[in-house]
Amino acid sequence: MVFDTMPVVPAVSLKDFDVRKEDITKELVEACEYTGFLTLVDHGITVEEINAQFELSKAYFSLPHDVKARIPHDVKTNNGWEYKSQLRPSTQMVDQKESLWLMRRSQWPSDEEVPGFRKTTSNFISKCENISDKVLSCLSLALGFPESYFRNAMDVTADDNLTQLRMLHYMASENAAGTWRAGPHTDIGCLTLLFQRDGEDGLEICPGRESQHSYGIGDSFFPLGAKTGPIVVNIGEMLMAWSDDRLKANFHRVRAKDVGFSPDRYSIAYFNTGRKSAVMQGPAKK
Ligand SMILES: O=C(O)CCC(=O)C(=O)O
Ligand SMILES: [Fe+2]
Questions:
Q1: Which of 62, 86, 61 is nearest to 73 (CA)?
Q2: What is the ipTM score, two decimals?
Q3: What's the CATH code, domain 11-272?
């Protein structure tokens, strides 16, 4: 299925999860197979909590560069702060953004730098872990695995867990033609939960199963408007492999306006990547 017009990106409610799990599973799998993107609502993180997390992100990115550079991006662990440095194979250019990658055990901004950052963000991450666990337990069942199949592979307490939270800031721009806030890419981990804010558009998605041309070039991308509250979910390459390609990792990108002013955009992505030592093998045992 290739889409000529923007398909409906399903909104899946996690309300009454325990009693509605079967129905939720069906909705999740259909969305992951068909459009490759969905949003989650009634997921348990309130708009106030999301706004509070964005305020901390904004406070962090507002710090002087030399303070942010106290946690430099480390190419080995992929943690830390980077500024306009992510080179995209798809565009051969660096993304017009700055971001902070965090892991439970990585270096964090101190309370002197951003009061309350670690406590609130750790709590936010725990909530993301919980949501991700729910979604993955549904996808496990749908793939014919035991419900807890991914749980050990995703164990957030394990030393080799690579899961990260990434805070992103795309700087305001004027007439940005020829540049990319984030060039087209798929995510490499298992499951991505993305938070956006009202009025800070720019995300474009390439839905469908046959959208797997090189970097999505020639495929149709559609804007997915930013909204505070719903979580945008997409499948990463690892889970695509793990599901024998049944769950689809799709391209997406972030753009500013070619002509005219684009305001700052802040987004927060939780990348459930799981453990380095996990063996990925799909139900077909390929
Ligand atoms: O900022 C966004 O909306 C997208 C970020 C993203 O796709 C990524 O970091 O992988
Ligand atoms: Fe992404």
A1: 86
A2: 0.99
A3: 2.60.120.330
